[in-house]
Amino acid sequence: MTQPVLSLWINGKAQAAASTRTAEIFNPATGQVIRRVPLASRQDVELAVAAARAAFPGWRDTTPLRRARVLMRFRELMQAHRDELVHLICEEHGKTREDAAGSLQRGIEVIEFATGVPHLLKGEQAEDVGRGVDCHSLLQPVGVCAGITPFNFPVMVPLWMFPVAIACGNAFILKPSEKVPSASLRMAELFREAGLPDGVFNVIPGDKEAVEALLTHPDVRAISFVGSTPVAKYIYETAARHGKRVQALGGAKNHAVVMPDADLDFTAEALVSAAYGSAGERCMAISTVVAVGAAGDALVAKLRDKAARIKIGPGEQPDVDMGPVITAPHRARVQKLIDSGVAEGARLVLDGRGYRVPGKEQGFFLGPTLFDQVTTTMEIYREEIFGPVLIVLRANTIDEAIQLVNGNPYGNGTAIFTRSGAHARRFERDIEVGMVGVNVPIPVPMAFFSFGGWKASLFGDLHVHGMEGVYFYTRTKVVTSRWPAGEEQGPSSLSMPTH
Questions:
Q1: Contact criterion met (CB below 8 Å) for 437 and 413
Q2: pTM to 2 decimal places
Q3: Catalytic residue selected from 90, 145, 168, 283
Q4: Which of 133, 295, 343, 411 has a Cα at 20 to 30 A from 112?
Q5: CATH fold group of domain 8-250+457-479
Q6: Burial level of 336, CB count in 10 A (0-12/13-18/19+)?
Q7: What's the chain's average pLDDT?
């Protein structure tokens, strides 16, 4: 059976790729190829950039209020097509329907934030900074922007980027993961239906060739990226070397510190959800627990019992808690890391290798895996596993736990579980991580706060969405003005003006 081949989206319409290369798109729950996607070539990228460049002046000159109205209609269409988008997420990624719907909602909230662009783009003004001199600032769009997004959130992560960029008056090119492109292409259709002018938003699925073309193209002014740390570092260095502003969000090893005074039933429930939701394929997943003092043994027992009851199956099947991982090679990589944990002496409390779902034996399923007595020298601690694997380390004190978290090269998200306000306050002040939860397992901020980590989890100065997103997608211009009457004109001077 011949699978359908998707198109690119350039200049407001579906367009066949110039490239002859394609990639297979799998349904991870069945292991079957369901469609193919063209891998955009440099020629395709050139066409997308040309369309965005031509559309930019008109969109830049469209008033922020009119841009906001287009975004409002886009938001309404995203809500109206919610079930369709959830299906595409489940079909190509494997998420459960509930998880897919939740990620879609968080993305829609960024559109809602971006509709406030008339207010968000207001600059500052000061009267009489000098005698008869006023000063004000403008936030102006940067031009053609590009986003490179990962497989794990087919809708939410692209929505972190392009609504804010477009609201600010930019044109945008989205390079979604070739593993999950259909939702991005559908959003492009809905955005056009909402009234977005042709060329303002373009979607070009592809691989390294498309990425390289975007990173080096002289007309692309800004690059947003979410993915692994090695690739984020490369994206940042390459794009910055070509004169672009860059925000490159990298990998994570998110720790949850559990104090002896924590409510262990509540904590275990929260950690199981945070570790195994979306099969662990979240940059904000809690993959590492630091059990402090007497919390350890009781917590591990509760984690084991709760994880063992997780129902695994196809994401669109009712009452399923966890779906498959994205591909067979990724499953093999996670299994190899589990093997290394056993070989290095960690205690395997729950083993998810070899898990099979009846009737879906070809699906890319793994069961939940739990390790105890892990040390910082083990590969399962050092590597970002990105699968349904939770590891537990032990610490004697909160000082030791904070030192352990801060010693990790990643700094995306972290959490503490405690009843002590003093411990919580100490943790949130001293921890070197960008997003912190207090009795909240996945501290993902709302759209009106920025999302981003520290250390090897971020390359660049600004995070995505929130006001940092607005600042990333705009350039600040400061205007100083004087309107002297003729008789006020004084003698010329070569000295530094001090007003």
A1: yes
A2: 0.95
A3: 283
A4: 411
A5: Aldehyde Dehydrogenase; Chain A, domain 1 (3.40.605)
A6: exposed
A7: 96
